[in-house]
Model the fold of this input.
Amino acid sequence: MTDAHAIDSLGWERRTFVPSDAFRSNALVSDHSLYDEASQDSTAFWAKQARELISWSKEWHTASEWNLPFAKWFVGGELNVSYNCLDRHVLAGRGDKVAFHFEGEPGDTRTVTYAQLLDETQRFANVLKGLGVVKGDRVNIYMPMIPEAAIAMLACARIGAAHSVVFGGFSAISLTDRINDAEAKVLITADGGWRRGEIFPLKHTADEALLGTSTITDVVVVRRGGNEITMHDGRDHWYHELMAQADPVCPPEPMDSEQLLFLLYTSGTTGKPKGIMHTSGGYLTQAAFTHKYVFDLHADTDVYWCTADVGWITGHTYIVYGPLANGATQVMYEGVPNFPGNDRMWQIVEKYGVTLFYTAPTAIRTFMKWGDHEPAKHDLSSLRLLGSVGEPINPEAWMWYHEHIGGSTCPIVDTWWQTETGAIMISPLPGVTTTKPGSATFGLPGIGTELVDESGEHVERGGGYLTLTQPWPAMLRGIWGDPDRYRETYWSRFPGRYFAGDGAKLDDDGYLWLLGRVDDVMNVSGHRISTTEVESALVSHPSVCEAAVVGALDATTGQAIIAYVTLRGGFEGDEQALRNHVAVEIGSIAKPKAIYFTPDLPKTRSGKIMRRLLRDVAEGRNLGDTSTLADASVVNELQRRAAEAPAED
Ligand code: 7RM
Done:
């Protein structure tokens, strides 16, 4: 083993799934033409996509300008993002097409057509203008999952104000920090939203947040929860009152291709949240391209449902900008997947005839835990494609998704990307790519990926660091207010390339397998073991639903593997059996030293497992920052048990 060794590669999943003839014969792409074109000249490839998928009011003069690490795309071009998402569909006679089938958690529904969405967006753009918002200002959005969240975003885009959406589950202090960093002028929120049968009081939290800010002049409040709130005279306004008086016409003003479209804050593991900057022309091009081709969107017939919240990048790109730019019809759901029952998602799929379904591995593993009988209660035969995003999907979770949701016929697109990349980077093309459960397969056309070792040397096979070798249209343009941190965070580890922070491995066929964050890689007696591989080995045992492993300091081996395991319903935890199972699956070096059974794992609010906290627990440390944790009681319980029964030798 050399010093340049990045990550060992242990297990190999060998099952393969070829796109069916039925799917291929109807797919937008069923050959390698897009890959071939892009490999000839990727800039020309993206320029072609920008011309085909986006309407420009002024043509650009230079497709791409690259001053590492600062990129510009479609330089000199002008467009209006909201025009692309709304007006052009209405002008083409598709005003009556449904944009959103909205399903509230309590069961109330609303159908919003493209014409209605355009009408509300124009009015709200005028409302914002009336409050003094001008091009270049920042507007904060703190909303439940209701159509007004999309309307608020599109209205900002229409007038050239950048939005900064803060997920509705974040605390007052998180909102304060983000408002202050962006120096936002206006806050758009709601009285409350529905979650697990109860109202979460957004306006109340916003009021608390605003005690610590000085830039917000006005607050617009959508009535959703009907809960009692306090309106501050002069500052707070009801959305419906302002809208009733708003001018219905707000022409889409052309914006520079590099006009700031939004900031989206990522918490990261250290330091204050980073305001990731995304601009207009390049972002919309890649959002529309990936949404169309990765999901094989047939806009006239498909019903698309992405279960993310608009507060995350997945909601920005694959609920708002990508699907609307493509004129898709989608489902928007406000609430949790287990209200009123564990089959709510499948009931919605059946009700609206959803054809394309995009969710996260954490959700899939939860559905597995709830049992096969929940999806079996519903007719899911409308589904024709499934997607996954957010974490590595363990092969067993992939297989479960394939069989129990996809009826063993739907292709699965495992899509790797980040807030920073803006849009999907690595994914199968469903009519082209033979998939392997757990592999995100290949970089999309026009995307340059390369695995490198510790010293930046090319890795041909096995584990390494995932880097991106060339600029892409939807890439972040920087960190708001901190260009040095931008360069340092993403462009300094391997000079000349973007390093995403993720490890991956390449198999003999050149397939990419994401292995999790490199900060989480465990070092056991000099072996660099990825969390993903051990977790996938555990999840491949019939008793296991979900697993998280961490490397905890160990006097003999440097680090020892500690596993936290959630069992499937009806199974008893057998530590020895699981340790042996891991040894058989990937080798005895990867055997966990201790296994703790737990009904739940600590996750971020967007559903990613927080291994850092588990490491703190395993090493008996006080917990660091827990503010991004979705449910703090989970770690408290694990910590209590760790204190009572220290890991045995
Ligand atoms: C879209 C999103 C980004 C991080 C990323 C990875 C992990 C996302 C996958 C994945 C394996 C995937 N944005 N990640 N997708 N890992 N396979 N298909 O999640 O900024 O919130 O997170 O998520 O570690 O770096 S994000």
